[in-house]
Specification:
The chain has eight helices and eleven strands. It has about 270 residues and is α+β, with helices and mostly antiparallel strands. The strands form two sheets. The chain has an eight-stranded antiparallel sheet with strand order 4-9-11-10-6-7-5-8. Strands 1-3-2 form a three-stranded antiparallel sheet. The radius of gyration is 30 Å and the shape is elongated.
Length: about 270
Amino acid sequence: MANNGLLSIHEFSKLAEIKASSLRYYDELGLFAPCERSASNYRYYSPQQVTAIKAINLLQDMGVSVRDIARISQNRSPETVLHIIGQHTDDLQAQADEIRRKLGVLHTYEDLIHTAMAADEALIEVRRLEEHPLALGSKTAHPPSSDRFYPEFVDFCAEASSLGIDLSYPVGGLFDSLEDFLQDPDRPNCFFSYCPDGEQARPAGDYLVAYHRGHYGQAQSLPSRIRAYIDTHHIEVTGPVYNVFVLDEITMIERDDYLLQFSVRVI
């Protein structure tokens, strides 16, 4: 450090964590000049200039070119700086929102996988489930057809964007009542996305929970198992049935290995 408290280019580059070659380039562009030059043309910087170089690095990280930063710097004013801050704040907020959305998808799959790994597939039990938001699609048509699961699921996917439903999250089926499920277990009254930003929710409470191994639209023996358990244990249930695949094509190779979680609230 010089006697006047200034730093050589190498000292400053170390302090500011920037290459000396970048400092020379910035100087040539008129973007960032040294505080002083010696008689032999050596560059010297003030320690306070670290703040300015960090601001330049921040703008570069946000995608602003060095030449644009130089142009802005040469004509800077409180008004121009506020404009830049506002413009890039909006851009960064959009990026942050997208990162939060992706993290939400990952955490949702992580939670469902942990649920599946801890599940006893042969066991039917009453246990507490916490509230979980859902984004519901439109009611399904339920025509008297023998093959309506996939066409109705396609309809749900087609309308998802217009309803603001994010299909990155796992998808499940909602039945208005247990009787609807028992009568036609492969045709939910509507589909839903297991999205934490959904406007509806499966409320917290005690639920009858069961699991079934198999692919979409193939409930097979699950309804009879549910009915037998309810009759044997004299359980009363209310409200919708929620079916969500805790293991699906994201985690399993064979579709017959998908794992469905059934839940209906207990009175």
